[in-house]
Inverse folding.
């Protein structure tokens, strides 16, 4: 029965999406219940699958939808890493979104597309062939657009337009890449990398550039990162998701798939493609940090920080040393839980006190201590301060860079740490040490309107970020799982 | 009570963390301030009874970390726990009516956990975690009173601490890689001694730990930050927390394998600090600042000896006990001196003379006065410092004695006929006693020699720098000489002015940014900002073009295939 488990993970969000679209606004309680319920059931399914996968079971579901083109859902350890992250964070974001919007307009549409989005992200993770991956990847692009433009004002529509322009162009490039490769070696199955030995290196290099360039748009590698800071016009739950699991991570995940499962580490090294990509990722890391330092808007600073942090994953993947591989994979998870914490807190600050600019953060710690405590954990983690999870990523990436004979990458990591400290610590300084400006609501007043569900998800992710760092070497920790995945590729 | 004494090791760090957590409970802040002395008790017990060199594995924690108490670590641990305990007693009284008790108790306990953990970590990852705790979370203690001067001191502290953290992190990565990916401290140290070790690893570690321990010229944060904190926090900062840096050097320097360049640089910087910092201390107006400079000076002495040992390839077994003994004495004595300075405003008339006497004894001990504990620990250290180093250490008695005299001269005055409260006097006396007595107790066991092996004549002969100091002090008092005055943090002033100008510019840019935020697009103000924005624009236009090319190319390829 559980051979259908992958299918179940894809179908459950469809149910929730249909329910959300269909139910009128007055039945919003039912809609909320259905959303949370489905997200919770998915989490249980994933927990079951994790235990099975630990024992070595690989679930697969296959359907030939065109002659020669199989639609394959496959739950290998790498897929499970991403599925677990997305399903876990989805549950929390659903709870957060319900509290955040309360009774806003157009919520059936929002939650409908929200569920299509989770469907697509799960699908991206579980895809067993390049074509399947592409289908879900495109669905993700399209399902996210109404979320980015949700508010419907000029700014949101513009952001949505920029988002579509960038990502659709990227998709075309990616599609061209996989079709080209498919015409040379036949169907591309992730489970068994095709033999690329007969193809001229120049062709392989061009295909690699097409694929990585296309995926790099979503992963916000420079010079394709321009859409991400603009997409900040989206409501906080969407930004949180966009940055932590859905869009940006789908791009990074795709790059990991291309390097490990389409080309294979050996081929990438032979073609000499790893170092240029690592250099590009390093440039993105530093450039994103410098830009983040210059932002005066809180969400924009976080957005540029994402540009920088997601490239850690690409850096790890392209360095191909054992520790670097693990470091990149584990950062996929760690960046997700830390960044979603930051965005959910930023959203809570905007929602409760109207704080949008960094200069308005003064005294926020006194007024909303729990939110700011969670925010602080996320920010310290981003800097790489132990024992928050970000430190573990950085350690593995650094040692991995040395193993790959790329000591310069360690310098990049060190520089990035300093820059991260330079743009995160002033936020904490303002929030905790400066007095609140006049005109802020009093603590007592805030307490009367408190909505625990707005804070709880961020607290949970903050605690998980801490736990993932402190108990990094437990078997089911992100690091434990990333090691399992990484060792599979290095064997 | 506890069957296995090695379990005391995890307890030593978990217990203060638990106390820190309790301080977060609403309304528990002032209660937890009263309980501050409880924090270091398990560590004290561990230093006394836990088995040496028996690793305690902590599976699942960090990267399968572990704790282990070595002989050197036990001395550091015991000294630090003693100091933290008595400073805790002092703080429980001193901070009892503080405005922010919860914050003080929270960070006091967390820093304590980190400080103790550094001494018992068995692997570099947990070491780094503890080091970051003790290093970064001491910032709230430095700025506890929120005075503008403290806030400035805190900023300097934090900037240097973060730079130090990064240097140590990169150094440890290089070291771990050189040791074949091992994370055990012993394995990593052995790896650093190999010729294949990365040449940047040891210098980075020296710089990182040097920042913490006040290695000249990285010391500038220390004389501003230590005096800014409340008295008990200054005591632990200067007595125990700087020792985390020394212990870092002790744990990682590849002693036994001659490393000429790194060793000589460390020795030169250390011994320069020994003299220069003491002289700068002479020019300070605040007693706490003088003491902070004296800490820089004394830590310079230790680092100079470590540098000599590193350059000459002395065996760790010979050097480390002497270093640990010196650190023990300095920690307790310096802690007591800080608490004593805090006592001065509440010691009227007769009490003041008593206090001056006690401080003078402690100061003479630090300076190496014969027959006091300080001379004992210095003689152990001199044996490891070579002839030249030993001479320098002997000479430093002069500068140290002068600095101590300066500290007494600028001691704050008491208002009237007040008498010191018992809970403030007792920790001072206890720490003074421990500083003067513990080295005698432990000397034979640690160094394997009997104390006072030298004959009386050489003792007297070696005392000439102190005699000279006494003459100079007497002369200065007789003439009514005024010492020159230097700002706290010496070289910091010019640097800070430039940084202040820069940060003012940055703030202006940020303000301008938030103003223009209300308009549609933020306009950058600084020159660098404009350049980067131009780059960003190029990217934006270039990206569109690049994506278009990719897309067209893709479409052509796709069309030709299907």
């Amino acid at each position: 029965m559980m051979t259908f488990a992958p299918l179940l993970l894809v179908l459950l969000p469809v149910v929730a999406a249909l329910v959300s679209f269909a139910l009128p606004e007055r039945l919003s309680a039912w809609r909320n219940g259905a959303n949370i319920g489905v997200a919770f059931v998915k989490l249980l399914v994933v927990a079951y699958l994790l235990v099975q996968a630990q024992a070595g079971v690989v679930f697969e579901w296959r359907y030939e939808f065109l002659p020669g083109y199989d639609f394959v859902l496959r739950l290998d350890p790498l897929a499970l890493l991403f599925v677990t992250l997305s399903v876990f964070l989805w549950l929390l974001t659903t709870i957060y979104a319900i509290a955040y919007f309360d009774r806003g307009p157009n919520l059936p549409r929002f939650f409908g597309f929200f569920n299509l989005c989770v469907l697509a992200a799960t699908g991206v993770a579980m895809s067993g062939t390049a074509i399947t991956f592409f289908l879900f990847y495109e669905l993700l692009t399209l399902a996210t657009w109404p979320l980015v433009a949700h508010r419907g004002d000029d700014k949101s529509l513009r952001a949505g337009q920029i988002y579509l322009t960038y990502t659709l162009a990227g998709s075309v490039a990616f599609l061209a890449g996989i079709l080209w490769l498919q015409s040379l070696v036949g169907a591309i199955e992730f489970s068994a990398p095709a033999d690329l030995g007969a193809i001229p290196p120049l062709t392989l290099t061009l295909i690699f550039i097409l694929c990585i360039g296309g995926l790099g748009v979503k992963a916000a590698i420079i010079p394709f990162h321009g859409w991400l800071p603009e997409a900040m016009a989206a409501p906080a739950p969407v930004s949180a998701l966009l940055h932590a699991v859905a869009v940006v991570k789908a791009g990074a995940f795709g790059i990991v798939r291309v390097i490990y499962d389409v080309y294979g580490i050996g081929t990438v090294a032979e073609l000499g493609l790893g170092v240029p990509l690592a250099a590009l990722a390093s440039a993105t890391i530093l450039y994103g940090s410098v830009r983040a330092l210059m932002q005066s808007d809180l969400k924009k600073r976080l957005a540029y920080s994402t540009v920088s942090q997601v490239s850690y994953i690409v850096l790890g993947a392209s360095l191909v040393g054992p520790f670097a591989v693990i470091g990149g994979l584990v950062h996929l998870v760690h960046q997700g839980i830390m960044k979603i914490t930051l965005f959910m807190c930023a959203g809570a600050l905007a929602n409760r006190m109207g704080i949008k600019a960094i200069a308005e953060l003064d005294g926020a710690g006194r007024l909303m201590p729990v939110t700011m405590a969670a925010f602080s954990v996320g920010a310290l983690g981003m800097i790489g301060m132990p024992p928050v999870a970000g430190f573990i990523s950085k350690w593995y990436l650094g040692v991995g860079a040395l193993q790959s004979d790329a000591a310069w990458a360690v310098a990049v990591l060190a520089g990035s740490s300093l820059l991260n400290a330079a743009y995160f610590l002033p936020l904490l300084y303002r929030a905790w040490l400066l007095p609140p400006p006049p005109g802020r609501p009093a603590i007592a007043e805030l307490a009367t309107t408190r909505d625990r569900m707005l804070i709880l998800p961020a607290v949970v992710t903050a605690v998980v970020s801490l736990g993932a760092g402190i108990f990094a070497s437990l078997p089911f920790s992100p690091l434990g799982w990333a090691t399992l995945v990484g060792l599979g590729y290095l064997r | 009570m506890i069957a296995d004494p090695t379990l005391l090791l995890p307890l030593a760090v978990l217990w203060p963390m638990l106390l820190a957590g309790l301080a977060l409970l609403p309304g528990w802040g002032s209660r937890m301030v009263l309980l501050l002395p409880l924090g270091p008790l398990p560590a004290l017990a561990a230093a006394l009874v836990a088995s040496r060199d028996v690793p305690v594995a902590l599976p699942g924690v960090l990267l399968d970390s572990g704790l282990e108490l070595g002989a050197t670590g036990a001395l550091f641990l015991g000294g630090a726990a003693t100091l933290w305990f008595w400073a805790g007693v002092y703080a429980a009284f001193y901070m009892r009516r503080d405005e922010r008790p919860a914050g003080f108790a929270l960070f006091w306990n967390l820093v304590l956990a980190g400080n103790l953990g550094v001494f018992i970590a068995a692997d570099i990852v947990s070491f780094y975690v503890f080091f970051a705790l003790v290093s970064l979370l001491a910032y709230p203690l430095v700025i506890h009173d929120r005075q503008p001067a403290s806030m400035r001191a805190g900023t300097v502290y934090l900037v240097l601490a973060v730079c130090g953290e990064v240097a140590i992190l990169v150094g440890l990565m290089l070291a771990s890689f050189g040791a074949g990916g091992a994370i055990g401290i012993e394995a990593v140290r052995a790896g650093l001694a190999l010729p294949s070790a990365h040449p940047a690893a040891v210098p980075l570690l020296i710089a990182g730990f040097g920042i913490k321990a006040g290695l000249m010229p990285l010391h500038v944060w220390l004389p501003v930050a230590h005096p800014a904190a409340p008295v008990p926090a200054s005591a632990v900062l200067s007595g125990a927390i700087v020792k985390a840096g020394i212990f870092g050097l002790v744990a990682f320097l590849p002693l036994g394998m001659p490393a000429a360049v790194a060793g000589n640089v460390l020795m030169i910087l250390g011994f320069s600090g020994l003299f220069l910092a003491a002289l700068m201390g002479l020019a300070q107006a605040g007693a706490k600042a003088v003491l902070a400079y004296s800490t820089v000076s004394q830590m310079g002495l230790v680092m100079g000896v470590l540098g000599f040992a590193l350059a000459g390839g002395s065996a760790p077994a010979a050097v480390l006990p002497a270093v640990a003994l010196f650190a023990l004495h300095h920690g307790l004595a310096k802690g007591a001196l800080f608490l004593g300075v805090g006592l001065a405003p509440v010691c009227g008339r007769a009490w003041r003379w008593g206090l001056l006497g006690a401080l003078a004894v402690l100061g003479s001990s630090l300076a190496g006065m014969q027959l006091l504990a300080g001379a004992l620990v210095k003689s152990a250290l001199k044996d490891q410092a070579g002839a030249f180093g030993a001479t320098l250490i002997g000479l430093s008695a002069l500068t140290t004695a002068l600095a101590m005299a300066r500290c007494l001269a600028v001691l704050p005055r008491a208002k009237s006929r007040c008498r010191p409260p018992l809970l403030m006097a007792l920790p001072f006396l206890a720490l003074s006693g421990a500083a003067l007595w513990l080295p005698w107790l432990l000397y034979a066991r640690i160094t394997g020699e009997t104390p006072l092996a030298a004959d009386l004549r050489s003792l007297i002969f070696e005392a000439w720098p102190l005699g000279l100091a006494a003459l100079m002090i007497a002369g200065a008092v007789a003439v009514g000489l005024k010492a020159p005055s230097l700002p706290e943090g010496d070289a910091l002033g010019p640097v800070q002015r430039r940084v202040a100008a820069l940060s003012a510019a940055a703030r202006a840019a940020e303000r301008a940014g938030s103003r223009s935020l209300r308009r549609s697009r933020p306009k950058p103000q600084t020159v660098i900002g404009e350049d980067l924005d131009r780059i960003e624009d190029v990217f934006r236009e270039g990206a569109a073009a690049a994506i278009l090319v990719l897309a067209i190319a893709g479409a052509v390829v796709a069309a030709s295939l299907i």
In short: DSSP finds 21 helices and two strands in chain A.
